Structure formats: structure tokens, C-alpha cells
């Protein structure tokens, strides 16, 4: 079977995707960049690149064994990376649970041959792409909070000029070992 372009990520609740799309339209002029469609708004935990089916399967097994509680994510920061042309939404203080989850997934990915950038992990949701000109960022004061209680493995499909992200599997974030629950008498 062919390789797939994969990444682990946190998806946003539908209502938050809609709120962010409205806020983005009010905040950035049309010429600032190309908006990411609502359904594609997500926060990447670990980018895997092109992955063979066996490696994908192994990483999914490892992901299913992760035992850690959910956490609240506060989206209260925005920035612009001119070189990749990305305008993003992020958090002033990343929750420890988020950093722990990303670090574990990235370490497992690296051990299975998926290149991991040496750049420190900067959690973000890409709002605009092709944003290569200077962009006026909104003043601090915006804030959304949501509870993260699952994470997913996504495949990135490109067809007819469009990128679509497809969740292949999702796992709960819970402090109880799901295997222990299943095997309890
Ligand atoms: P971006 O939004 O900052 O571009 C699917 O492409 C997801 O994986 C996106 O969130 C994207 O981040 C991220 N991604 C794509 N290529 C990547 C790379 N080479 N290194 C790290 N993350 C990457």
C-alpha cells in the first residue's frame, strides 16, 4: 500500500471553528493571506510526513496506549511567520498537558524514522497561508478556551487543488488507562 502524509493533531469543536472564521474575517483584510477553511483548522502535535502503512500502524498502537488527562487550551495569542507565510493563533502559556502530549508523540515519531524539526514545538492553529506581506496583528485581549479531551491522527489528502484533512483514528485523553478499564472484572 502507498504511503500517506500524516500528522497527529487536536481538532477544534465545530462551533469554535465557526467563531474563529468570523473573528478572522473581522480581524484581517482579505489581502492578508489565504484563509484556511473552517474544517481544516487544527493544532498539530506532531508532523510525520510521508509514512508507510506499517509505521502508521505502529504509531497508532503507541498512541492508543497514551494515558494522560485532558487539559484546557486558552487561545489568546496571535502571530505572523513571514517566511512560511503563516498567520497563526496560539496560547501565551501552553498547558503542560499539551507540551507533554506533543513531546511524547514527536519522540515516538522520531524513533520510527519520521523526521522531527529541531525547532522547538510552538503550538499553533494556522489561520492564513501565503501571508508574505507584513500583517497588522490584533491587540491582545481576544480569548477562547476549550477542553481538549481527544487527539487524532490525520491524513492530508490533496486533490483538485484542495487539501483535505481526514481523521484516521482518535484517542481519548483520560487519566485512567483504557486497557485497565477494559480488563477490569
Ligand atoms: P502549519 O499549519 O504551520 O503549516 C498539516 O500539514 C499540518 O502539519 C499543518 O498544521 C502544518 O503546519 C504541519 N506541517 C506541515 N509540514 C510540516 C513540517 N515540515 N514540519 C512541521 N509541521 C509541518
From TrEMBL:
Reactions listed under catalytic activity: a 3'-end 2',3'-cyclophospho-ribonucleotide-RNA + H2O = a 3'-end 2'-phospho-ribonucleotide-RNA + H(+)
Keywords: Hydrolase
Motif (HXTX 1): 42-45
Name listed for the protein in its UniProt record: RNA 2',3'-cyclic phosphodiesterase
Enzyme Commission no: 3.1.4.58
SUPFAM superfamilies listed in its UniProt record: LigT-like
Top EC class, one word: hydrolase
Single GO term (MF): RNA 2',3'-cyclic 3'-phosphodiesterase activity
InterPro entries assigned: Cyclic_Pdiesterase, RNA_CPDase
